Amino acid sequence: MTDGRTMVRRNRTIPSAFSIDRDFPHQVALLSDLCVDRNFRLLYDFCEALGVPWHTRHVTAIWPNGKHEKHRLHCFAEEASAAAFNMRFGGILFDPKQDRQRGVSQGPWLRNEPWQRVVRSGPLLVPLALVDAEGPHSRLP
Questions:
Q1: Using the 8-state DSSP alphabet, how is residue 31 labeled?
Q2: Which pLDDT does position 105 carry in this prediction?
Q3: Are 61 and 109 in contact (CB under 8 A)?
Q4: What residues contact residue 47 under an 8 Å CB cut-off, 6+ apart?
Q5: What is the bridge-based pairing of β-strands 68-76 and 26-31?
Q6: What beta strand segments (E) does 33-108 contain?
Q7: Residue 24, class by beta-carbon neighbours within 10 Å (0-12 exposed, 13-18 middle, 19+ buried)?
Q8: Which helix (H) or strand (E) holds 89?
Protein backbone atom coordinates (compact mmCIF):
# COMPACT_ATOMS: atom_id res chain seq x y z
CA MET A 1 0.00 0.00 0.00
CA THR A 2 1.29 3.47 -0.88
CA ASP A 3 0.45 6.90 0.45
CA GLY A 4 -0.26 8.27 -3.06
CA ARG A 5 3.16 9.84 -3.52
CA THR A 6 5.18 8.10 -6.18
CA MET A 7 8.37 9.11 -7.83
CA VAL A 8 8.00 10.05 -11.49
CA ARG A 9 10.68 8.44 -13.61
CA ARG A 10 12.49 10.39 -16.29
CA ASN A 11 11.96 9.14 -19.85
CA ARG A 12 15.26 7.44 -20.71
CA THR A 13 14.79 7.89 -24.46
CA ILE A 14 15.14 11.67 -24.05
CA PRO A 15 18.65 12.73 -23.07
CA SER A 16 19.13 14.74 -19.90
CA ALA A 17 20.04 18.42 -20.05
CA PHE A 18 23.54 17.55 -18.86
CA SER A 19 24.10 14.95 -21.61
CA ILE A 20 22.79 17.32 -24.32
CA ASP A 21 25.23 20.01 -23.16
CA ARG A 22 28.06 17.44 -23.11
CA ASP A 23 27.31 15.66 -26.41
CA PHE A 24 25.80 18.58 -28.38
CA PRO A 25 27.86 21.57 -27.19
CA HIS A 26 27.43 23.71 -30.33
CA GLN A 27 24.21 25.57 -29.64
CA VAL A 28 22.25 28.40 -31.24
CA ALA A 29 19.67 30.33 -29.21
CA LEU A 30 16.48 31.66 -30.81
CA LEU A 31 13.66 33.46 -29.02
CA SER A 32 11.04 30.78 -28.32
CA ASP A 33 8.33 32.89 -29.96
CA LEU A 34 10.26 32.54 -33.24
CA CYS A 35 10.13 28.72 -33.05
CA VAL A 36 6.37 28.19 -33.36
CA ASP A 37 3.69 28.10 -36.04
CA ARG A 38 5.07 27.84 -39.60
CA ASN A 39 8.55 28.68 -38.30
CA PHE A 40 8.66 25.35 -36.46
CA ARG A 41 8.36 23.49 -39.75
CA LEU A 42 11.12 25.62 -41.36
CA LEU A 43 13.46 24.88 -38.44
CA TYR A 44 12.59 21.18 -38.35
CA ASP A 45 12.95 20.68 -42.12
CA PHE A 46 16.31 22.47 -42.14
CA CYS A 47 17.66 20.30 -39.31
CA GLU A 48 16.39 17.14 -41.02
CA ALA A 49 18.04 18.22 -44.29
CA LEU A 50 21.38 18.62 -42.48
CA GLY A 51 21.24 14.88 -41.90
CA VAL A 52 22.87 15.09 -38.48
CA PRO A 53 21.44 14.47 -35.02
CA TRP A 54 20.29 17.52 -33.09
CA HIS A 55 18.33 18.31 -29.96
CA THR A 56 16.44 21.30 -28.65
CA ARG A 57 16.12 22.54 -25.11
CA HIS A 58 15.15 25.75 -23.38
CA VAL A 59 16.93 28.44 -21.44
CA THR A 60 15.58 31.54 -19.72
CA ALA A 61 17.51 34.69 -20.59
CA ILE A 62 17.64 37.34 -17.86
CA TRP A 63 18.74 40.94 -18.51
CA PRO A 64 20.07 43.45 -15.95
CA ASN A 65 16.73 45.33 -16.03
CA GLY A 66 14.96 42.15 -14.82
CA LYS A 67 13.39 41.24 -18.19
CA HIS A 68 13.01 37.47 -18.70
CA GLU A 69 12.53 35.67 -22.05
CA LYS A 70 12.45 32.01 -23.01
CA HIS A 71 14.83 30.93 -25.74
CA ARG A 72 15.04 27.61 -27.54
CA LEU A 73 18.51 26.17 -27.94
CA HIS A 74 19.17 24.20 -31.12
CA CYS A 75 22.02 21.87 -30.16
CA PHE A 76 24.44 20.14 -32.52
CA ALA A 77 27.42 17.83 -32.03
CA GLU A 78 29.36 19.45 -34.87
CA GLU A 79 30.36 23.11 -34.98
CA ALA A 80 29.77 23.21 -38.76
CA SER A 81 26.12 22.18 -38.29
CA ALA A 82 25.54 24.94 -35.73
CA ALA A 83 27.25 27.44 -38.03
CA ALA A 84 25.02 26.43 -40.97
CA PHE A 85 21.92 26.75 -38.77
CA ASN A 86 23.08 30.15 -37.49
CA MET A 87 23.81 31.37 -41.02
CA ARG A 88 20.29 30.38 -42.16
CA PHE A 89 18.22 31.52 -39.17
CA GLY A 90 20.39 33.93 -37.20
CA GLY A 91 20.17 33.66 -33.46
CA ILE A 92 22.97 33.81 -30.93
CA LEU A 93 25.73 31.25 -30.57
CA PHE A 94 25.38 29.84 -27.07
CA ASP A 95 28.14 28.17 -25.05
CA PRO A 96 26.53 26.06 -22.30
CA LYS A 97 29.67 26.19 -20.15
CA GLN A 98 30.16 29.95 -20.39
CA ASP A 99 26.68 31.41 -20.88
CA ARG A 100 24.73 29.65 -18.13
CA GLN A 101 24.92 30.98 -14.61
CA ARG A 102 27.82 29.12 -12.95
CA GLY A 103 27.79 26.59 -15.83
CA VAL A 104 24.85 24.71 -14.27
CA SER A 105 22.97 22.71 -16.94
CA GLN A 106 19.60 24.11 -15.78
CA GLY A 107 20.90 27.61 -14.95
CA PRO A 108 19.60 30.83 -16.51
CA TRP A 109 21.38 32.74 -19.25
CA LEU A 110 22.54 36.00 -17.69
CA ARG A 111 22.69 38.65 -20.43
CA ASN A 112 24.84 41.77 -20.00
CA GLU A 113 23.72 43.91 -22.93
CA PRO A 114 20.53 46.01 -22.85
CA TRP A 115 17.32 44.16 -23.71
CA GLN A 116 15.91 44.73 -27.20
CA ARG A 117 12.68 43.36 -28.61
CA VAL A 118 13.25 40.65 -31.24
CA VAL A 119 10.50 40.05 -33.79
CA ARG A 120 12.64 38.76 -36.67
CA SER A 121 15.66 36.55 -37.10
CA GLY A 122 16.67 35.59 -40.63
CA PRO A 123 13.49 34.34 -42.37
CA LEU A 124 11.69 33.82 -39.03
CA LEU A 125 9.05 36.27 -37.85
CA VAL A 126 7.19 36.21 -34.52
CA PRO A 127 3.54 35.32 -35.31
CA LEU A 128 1.14 38.24 -34.96
CA ALA A 129 -0.85 36.36 -32.33
CA LEU A 130 2.18 36.48 -30.01
CA VAL A 131 2.97 40.16 -30.48
CA ASP A 132 1.66 42.60 -27.89
CA ALA A 133 -0.64 45.52 -28.69
CA GLU A 134 2.23 47.89 -29.55
CA GLY A 135 2.34 46.38 -33.03
CA PRO A 136 6.09 46.03 -33.66
CA HIS A 137 5.37 44.38 -37.02
CA SER A 138 4.42 47.81 -38.36
CA ARG A 139 7.97 48.97 -37.56
CA LEU A 140 9.79 46.08 -39.27
CA PRO A 141 12.38 47.00 -41.86
A1: E
A2: 75
A3: yes
A4: 54, 74, 85
A5: antiparallel
A6: 54-62, 68-76, 92-94
A7: buried
A8: helix 79-89
